[in-house]
Amino acid sequence: MEDLDTRVLRTAHEWQGQGLPVVLVTVARTWGSSPRPPGSLMAINAQGHTVGSVSGGCIEDDLIHRVREEGVEAVCAGGRPSTLRYGISADQAHRFGLPCGGTVELVLEPVSERSQLPELLAACQARRSTERVLDLRTGEVLLQPGARDSLLRLDDTHLRTHFGPRFRLVVIGAGDLSRFLGEMALSLGFEVIVCDPREEQPQSWTLPGVTLTREMPDDLIVRLQPDARTAVVTLTHDPKLDDLALIDALRSQAFYVGAIGSRRNAAHRRERLHEHFGLTDAQLQRLHGPAGVYIGSKTPAEIALSIMAELVAAKNGVIADASRPR
Questions:
Q1: Rounded to whole angstroms, how far apart are CA atoms 102 and 206?
Q2: Residue 40 lies in a domain
Q3: Domain match, 198 and 143 both
Q4: Given 97, 163, 246, 250, which residue has the most CB atoms within 10 angstroms?
């Protein structure tokens, strides 16, 4: 399953390859409350078909009407990128369903060979952080290496957007819990890799959209070199496997590293990783164990929900309250 940005870019490229005029819409700036943040993408073809979104629905309806009635060239200022604002007045905000005081500024770009969508998709697939620079005067696009999580910038002549590697979840252990965790992660746009070298585990374990590997966990982590868009969660309850992954994951840039187990086992795990494998206090402080927020979870699905909630909070920069019971 693709993340939404990739799906928008891929679909826009496919429509353009079919000879359909296409507009790529980017949320460039917002003021006050807004339904979608800067960087959100939407594509509209000349037939009025869409993928992605820039609001709760009303702005999309107006954009579709404009594209179908006026045509892509007219909407995009004679075939060049143009900007459009919604919600400047209270009446317009009410008309388009924007929150009170909300304003959204959009950049509308006609998709062509100059858009370099295949090259951008290839960069994302290769996990290269990429800055896309759109010249608003000509429609020309420059792709260049970009810093992860850089902010979108719009000025009089250029729109600069950033496409980082897709968020990735590495799960150690193939079982019911990893299945639920994988399903949730896929629905949230994560790339998911499940690792389990144990011969006694069901060799038929599979989940559409998930990569399954039977290599040793430490070999996998070393091969992947987790970056700041990677999370690692160990689920086997077997220290011989979980610890192998945790040792290297805690030394990496992974934004989240978690391990399931009781609080007693978590304490023993920290002691073991410190005494026998030399992990520092700072590295061990990064370990979420037991993994997950406290919701009184009992079933594999509930435990997966708990872990995914904590993982997404870490992804979004939300600091968990360590005083809560676990």
A1: 45
A2: yes
A3: no
A4: 246
